[in-house]
Write a structure and sequence with these properties.
Number of helices of chain A: 1
Structural class of chain B: alpha+beta
CATH architecture of chain B: 3-Layer(aba) Sandwich
Number of domains of chain B: 1
Order of helices and strands of chain B: EEHEHEHEEHHHEEEEHEHHHHHEE
CATH superfamily of chain B: Thiolase/Chalcone synthase
Largest sheet of chain B: 10 strands, mixed
Largest sheet of chain A: 5 strands, antiparallel
Helix content of chain B: 25-40%
Distance between the termini of chain A: 20 Å
Strand order of the largest sheet of chain A: 7-6-5-8-9
Oligomer: heterodimer
Strand content of chain A: 35-45%
Distance between the termini of chain B: 17 Å
Order of helices and strands of chain A: EHEEEEEEEE
Radius of gyration of chain A: 16 Å
CATH topology of chain B: Peroxisomal Thiolase, Chain A, domain 1
Structural class of chain A: mainly beta
Number of domains of chain A: 1
Shape of chain A: globular
CATH class of chain B: Alpha Beta
Number of helices of chain B: 12
Number of strands of chain B: 13
Number of strands of chain A: 9
Chain lengths: 144, 392
């Protein structure tokens, strides 16, 4: 079951391969983000090189799919035809303290009118769209 | 020797087309651009054929070579585009034009922006593609697509960190609508806003209600810049550029909302350079034009330009402080992007010039220093300061 109505743009891996590892892992219920093999720093969104040490030896590593709410928004006005009958929905920005505080964007599952507390703990929920063309997985979040 | 634009360039003329609601322009965008340029040249008292450069921003699609051909310009010497989407390049384009003049690359540069959201894509709508890759693949599938949605989480975090009430956002909107009632050019002229109407308006995305969001418009605006020694060629009160800077902070462009300093308008590194070049302090600013994509952006811009401490927003952001002529810091005195017209903020630079010239429809008495903040929360952002002869 998907949080938002069908019809929004579907995410695809970049043709140049920069973020393929993220999407492939998400399809397997695994959260992977970038980590520099030289200085071991974490990085998100994906870049071709490490922004700290400038090494181009940057890989992807699986991380605990947990974080805390850094900010959020409740959207009311539909800006896409797929959202016309949606009603309000929540978008969350989730900070991963275990990975140098990188942040992930997703929907916050549950009642869209719920009160949201900045700093609250949350965990990832993998929302699979295996029958879509192209197939994809969204990484959603739920309060603990 | 200090390298600076301070006092080297004057604004000889400003102009705009009639401003329309999105879809309301009876002319094509390219024709609107030409009409605004001709209007600014007429205001400057020069022939459009003597223009030798153009500067714009935000991927304006009116190519300078085509404009020069249409206007019969004999010697095009400068054609410049400031990188970056949104209105973050408004003052940046002014600075680029001024830099060309100050260094002798050009003599008479028009800064312009033409925008017909009724004829081309609307900024306030999400992409219609079936699939998407790159940075937007990490946001759009979650329903995070429009500018209001891109910026609401920044503002929410700032309001959370500093205990800011939504009444502070409302005051910014009320001030713009208040000023628009005296400005016949304003699209919202004759459509006043009060607290009750604001409070009853629908949410777009929390914390933004309808009246916290800029309009979508059709129109065009232009400014004519020349070397400072030509400032007195017109009958207007001479108006000089004191400073124009652009940029953004460390990794402001990190994708998927990962800029380390998130709850910011992106002016923290820009504003100090702005004041340093201009040789003025925040307390010297008589009137402010602060880009309203969304009211929350104005709030953070004003904090980062030094007009208010971040923890004092609830006291400072009241309508009485923001309106001309009596407010502590009259702000968006044309009605701005909320209530005059969303010409990607170039109208704010024009209003700053009118304040220095003394011919604003909401004139601040004896305005000698006018500051413009362009396009908060995008990257790069830019700011500019205009001054009277007394400031040189």
């Amino acid at each position: 079951m998907s949080y938002l109505h069908a019809g929004l743009p579907k995410p695809m891996p970049r043709p140049d391969g920069l973020d393929s590892a993220y999407w492939e892992a998400a399809a397997q219920d695994v959260l992977k983000v970038q980590r520099c093999n030289a200085c071991r720093g974490w990085q998100w969104g994906p870049e071709w090189i490490c922004h700290r040490c400038l090494s181009d030896d940057v890989g992807f590593e699986a991380v605990a799919p947990t974080g805390r709410i850094y900010s959020y928004e409740r959207v009311w006005h539909p800006v896409h035809p797929a959202l016309q009958e949606q009603g309000p929905y929540l978008v969350a920005l989730v900070e991963l303290p275990q990975c140098d505080g990188i942040r992930m964007v997703g929907n916050l599952l549950g009642n869209p009118r719920q009160a949201v507390r900045i700093g609250a703990a949350a965990h990832a929920v993998f929302e699979h769209h295996a029958d879509d063309d192209p197939a994809f997985t969204l990484v959603q979040w739920q309060l603990d | 020797m200090t390298r600076s634009l301070r006092g080297k360039v004057a604004v000889l003329g400003v102009g705009e087309t009639t401003y329309y609601k999105r879809g309301g322009a009876p002319e094509a965008e390219g024709k609107l651009a030409l009409q605004a340029i001709i209007a600014a040249c007429e205001d400057a008292g020069i022939s459009p054929k003597s223009v030798d450069g153009f500067a714009s921003f935000s991927n304006d699609q009116n190519d300078p070579s085509r404009l020069a051909a249409a206007l019969g310009i004999k010697d095009l010497r400068f054609a410049n585009m400031q990188w970056g989407g949104g209105g973050g390049g408004g003052s940046g384009a002014v600075g680029n034009a001024a830099a060309a003049i100050a260094t002798g690359m050009a003599e008479c540069v028009v800064v312009f922006r033409a925008l017909a959201q009724g004829q081309f894509g609307r900024f306030g709508q999400g992409p219609r593609r079936n699939a998407i890759f790159g940075d937007m693949a990490f946001t759009a599938p979650y329903g995070l697509m429009s500018p209001a949605q891109m910026f609401a989480m920044r503002v929410t975090r700032f309001m959370h960190d500093h205990g800011v009430d939504t009444a502070a956002l409302r005051a910014i909107s009320l001030a713009s609508y208040h000023h628009a009632q005296n400005n016949p050019r304003a699209v919202m002229h004759g459509r006043p806003l009060d607290e009750e109407k604001y409070d009853a308006s629908r949410w777009i995305v929390e914390p933004f209600r309808l009246y916290d969001c800029c309009q979508e418009n059709d129109g065009a605006a232009a400014m004519v810049l020349v070397p400072a020694e030509r400032a007195k060629e017109t009958n207007h009160r001479p108006t000089y550029l004191l400073s124009a800077v652009s940029g953004s902070h460390y990794r402001a462009g990190a994708s998927a909302h990962n800029t380390p300093d998130y709850a910011t308008s992106c002016f923290k590194t820009v504003a100090p350079r702005l004041y340093e070049m201009a040789g003025v302090k925040p307390a010297d600013v008589d009137v402010l034009q602060s880009y309203e994509n969304f009211t929350g952006g104005v709030l953070m811009s004003m904090v980062e330009h030094g007009f208010c401490e971040p923890d004092a927003c609830n006291e400072f952001f009241v309508k009485e402080n923001l309106i001309a002529p009596t407010g502590k810091l009259p702000t968006n005195t044309s009605g701005g992007n909320l209530a005059e017209c969303y010409m990607h903020g170039l109208g704010l630079n024009i209003e700053a010039v009118r304040q220095i010239r003394g011919d604003s429809t909401n004139q601040v008495p004896d305005a000698d220093v006018a500051l413009v903040g362009s396009g908060p929360m995008v990257t790069p952002v830019s700011s500019s300061i205009f001054g009277s002869e007394a400031t040189l």
